[in-house]
Structures are given as C-alpha cells and as structure tokens.
Known about the structure:
Elements (H helix, E strand, L loop, with lengths): L4 E3 L5 E2 L15 H7 L3 E2 L3 H31 L1 H11 L2 H14 L59 H14 L7 H14 L5 H17 L18 E8 L4 E8 L8 E4 L1 E6 L5 E5 L7 E4 L5 E3 L7 E5 L5 E6 L9 E6 L5 E6 L1 E5 L5 E6 L6 E6 L6 E3 L7 E5 L5 E6 L7 E6 L4 E5 L6 E6 L5 E9 L1 E8 L5 E8 L10 E4 L1
Antiparallel strand pairs: 1-2, 1-3, 4-5, 4-27, 5-6, 7-8, 8-9, 9-10, 11-12, 12-13, 13-14, 15-16, 16-17, 17-18, 19-20, 20-21, 21-22, 23-24, 24-25, 25-26
Amino acid sequence: MPSGYVCSNCGAPLSPAQNRCHQCGVEIDWEKAVGRVSYISYLPAARRRRRRRRVGLTGLFLIIALGGILYWGWSNAGARRRLASWMDSDAYRSYQQSWRQMRSGQSASGPTPIPAIAVIAEQPTPAPASAASPVPIPQSAAQPLATPVAESAATSTPTVASEDDAAQARALATEAQPLIPSHPCRAAELLQQAIDLADTPGIEALRQDAVARCSQLTATAIPQLSSPLPAPSSPSQRIAFTAYDVASDRYSIRSWRLDDRLPGADLAVGAMQPAFGPEGAIAYRSGPSGSPGIFLLQADGSIRQLTKRRGDMWPRWAPDGRQILFTSATRSADGSPHIYLVDVATRAVEDLGPGQHADWSQVGGIIFHDCDLGGERCGLWLMDPLTLERGLVTDVPDDSNPVWSPDGRYVAFMSSGRSQSWDVFILDLDRNAIQPVASHPAEDGLPAWAPDSSAIAFLSNREGDWAIYAWRTNDLTTTPLFPVGAILPNWDQAGLDWGR
C-alpha cells in the first residue's frame, strides 16, 4: 500500500480512507491516532518481525558466548591456578581485611593485616598392612611435619574486629591449643590465622610457644645426607628435562650439564619424560605428535623403540639396567593404569598389576601411586618385586610421581593434597615422617634426586616462567638452575631426571 500504514493490532495494511481495520475490526480515529501513534505503525509487519528476530538471535548468541567463556574459564586449569594464586596473595587478603573493617565501621586505611600462613592439612594415619605382606610399611608416614613458621618481625598490631571475626578467632585458638604438644606446626598456623582475624589477648603467647616447638621439631626432621650441590667442576652430572616449542607445537628432551650456563640442543624431538639408564642411555616416552611408545636413546645416538602403544608412559629403569618399568592404561582390560616391565633386550612386556608412576629402588622395592580395589584408599604404595605383595604407605590421593633417593632411604614425591598448590615432599621411611621441600604458592613438581642424594631438582613456575630448581638437603636452601620456557602445556606430564 503506498501509504505504508499498518494496523498496530494485527499488522494488516491500512488505507487512510479506512475507519476500521478490515481484518481485526479495530476502530481507528485517524485524527487522534496519527499524532499519538496509538494504532498506526509506520513500519511494515515484515520489517518488525525481522527486527524482533534479529534482536532475539543476537541476545541468544551473546548468552551462548558468555556461557562458553565462563565454562572455558572454569574448566581451564591455568585459569583456576591463577585464581587460586590471586586468592592466596597479599592483595586479596588486604581486600578481605578492608571489607571486614568496612563492616565493622573502620576506615579502609587501617592497619595492614599479617599475611596468613599456608595450612598443611593433617592426614589420618593409614591402616597397617597385612601381616602376611613382606613389604615393610611405615605406620605413621602420612603424618606431615609442617615447615617451620617464621617469627614475626614485630608484635602484631591490635585491630578492632567484628564480633564474627572475634568469635572465629577464639574458635581457631580453641582448636589449636590441644595441638601444641603433638602438632606444634599445625597449631602455629591456626593461631596465626586467628591473629589475622582478631588480636584476642593470649593468642600471641600461644603462637610463640607453638613456633618454638615447631622449629625444634623440624630442625631434625631430615638429617644432612651428604655434600652440598656439586660444584661446576663436576661436569659429568647432567639433568635431562622436557621442553616445548610453541611455533612447532612439539615437545623435546634437552640436557643441561652442571658447568653449562644454558641447556644444550635437543637430544630427542617429539619426546618427553626422560629417564637416565646405564652408560648414558636415556629411556623416554614419545610425545603426542610422534610415534607412540617407549623409546631408548643410546649413548652412540641411535634410537630403539621398545613398545608401540600410545598409552605407554613414565619409563623408569630397574636396578640391573636390563628392564624398564612403565605405566599404560591402554593395555589393561578395564582401561585402568597398570605397571608393566619391558625387557630391553627382548622387548618382552610383563604386567605387574594396577598402578602408575612407578619407580624401582636400587636396594629393592617398587613405589607407585594406586588405590585399593574399592577405590577408597589412594596414595603411595610399596610392592615387593618378587612376590608382587603390596602395602599402603601414604593415604593422600594426590600423592604421585614418587622417586627413590639413590641410597633407598627417602622418597621424593609431588602432591596437591598437602598444601594449597602442587608441592614436593620427602618421605623418610626410617623416621616415618613427611617433610615439605621448598613450599611455595606456585606449582612445584616432578622431583629428581641428584646421583649422590645431595639435592632434589624440580620443575616450578615460581618466577613466572618455567624453570628447574635445586633444593639442597644439607642446608635446605633452593637454588634456580636454568630456564625451561614460558609455556609448558601439561607440565605435570613433562618429566625430568638427574644422572651422571
């Protein structure tokens, strides 16, 4: 219609000569309706429908896109780690303190709170092994000894707290007081948290007592093992580690000698999880983009393929150097990870039962991560290599990647269930105690012992980029060794080893 008028009630076309809509029967007063646009719309019905459809589709697209972004952020491990790291930062604790001050009527520029100390949760003692098991199982190995709590440089500044914070502080102090004689490190952490909430009289005295007891306890947690980290005059020792090239999206294995400033060129391309063997040989897992299986890089540079399954990973040498332990979830009937043993000469593979991340001690005994048949007791287990008898050592499900010390007395492992992030710990089998190694809010993991047990190398992003650090066993200090790279996807699957 030339006029372009339509009925706003039903959308039928109208002529200015009409006083009533011929389709819906609405009576139209043109003199009043045109000025007020109460019945007349100057947009055709089809255009109005297309506009409504575009608006609806745009809104639906924005909702789906926002949901996808939120889902990606929640499922992304790196985003969760950054969120957890921020929530553990001084800035976030300062924000919390400012919010509490605002609720209690204080100015946001009040006294700065003392940073909270990370809590290492107490773990229950694992159940003793069966009497028929020939494997010696520590009965209290799951009881952690926390890192000594540092003394405050000055007495805490009293703060005026809300009633809720004061009640929570008193509850923490009540919980911590019975723990001072038996678990002073844990008690010191709880009391420090109570002081951060409200400086209730008497808590500081209890905290100082707990700190003193904790320092005495951890001073003898791990005795000095041997000499410090070898000097650069020992060039025979080297660390093999996994690197990642962003441009080619490919993993590789590189080596760093103690007298070098930076790592050398790639030893194996498309490879990860190196393990030193006899006469300089390196067993490794082929990377995701390469041929699947366990490979052997020999001292003369030649490469042999030992297994051909895509799920074969985490190779570790047997003490005699003739066999290699590895983990695979594609060989078992139920699809669960099993420990296998491959003969280097014949390539024959033997199934040792459920488990993963296994390591074979030089003095006998295989330690690995597994759960019982019911899936309820998970942690580190010991296995007799002759009888295949098993026994539970720790009962924290996240304890993984155990590595024996060369003398067979200690086990280094990584866990995220004993602190607020992935950290490295040492299990002392003689003392039945667990000691944290260089605890840090960043991600620490993949421990590897020095050949003389003088230090533990581990991967960490505590300075932002990934790098290898060494923790000395004689003075308990941490030293950065060399950089790995800014990006290392699936860092906990990378692997490293320290050999001669």
